TrEMBL record:
Protein name: peptidylprolyl isomerase
SUPFAM superfamilies found in the cross-reference section: EF-hand (SSF47473), FKBP-like (SSF54534)
Example of a GO cellular component annotation carried by this entry: endoplasmic reticulum
Reactions mediated catalytically: [protein]-peptidylproline (omega=180) = [protein]-peptidylproline (omega=0)
Length: 149
């Protein structure tokens, strides 16, 4: 956001809750240089509570004009998988991903309710542990496709 970031682009990891869910969805499959105008309903933004004491009122529909400047290797890269896989067993445990999330949250410096960590961790396993064994394999992690995400 150039308006909230002193005129500079905002960098974030897509799909891990660093922005509202509507932006995570709207920016999927964007390519560098692409522009989109998106309309995000309250249910995918700040809902009934609004944001920042009246800055965004309850039940607000948000409109964004997005330009994607660059994409860097992120959580779905082979390098990131290997970084998270502390014991090098080629599968990610709840403990390994939990530690990775804690490090990412500390890096971005945002204040979050402690329940957010558990919600994201549960969501990661619900969406990625396809065989239900309690681990996310390299195949389930999808390191072989969409490396730019």
């Amino acid at each position: 956001s150039r308006t909230q970031n002193e005129g500079h682009p905002k960098w974030f990891v897509l799909g891990v809750g660093q922005v509202i869910k509507g932006l995570d969805i709207a920016m999927m499959n964007m390519c560098p240089g692409e522009k989109r105008k998106v309309i995000i309903p309250p249910s995918l933004a700040y809902g009934q509570q609004g944001y920042a004491q009246g800055k965004i009122p309850p039940n607000a529909t948000l409109i964004f004009e997005i330009e994607l400047y660059a994409v860097n290797k992120g959580p779905r890269s082979v390098e990131a998988f290997n970084q998270i896989d502390k014991d090098s067993d080629k599968k990610l445990s709840v403990l390994e991903i939990s530690q990775y999330l804690k490090e990412e949250f500390a890096r971005d410096g945002k204040k979050r309710h402690p329940s957010v960590h558990d919600e994201i961790l549960d969501d990661i396993f619900k969406k990625n542990d396809h065989d239900g064994d309690g681990f996310i394999s390299a195949k389930e992690y999808n390191v072989y496709q969409h490396d730019e995400l």
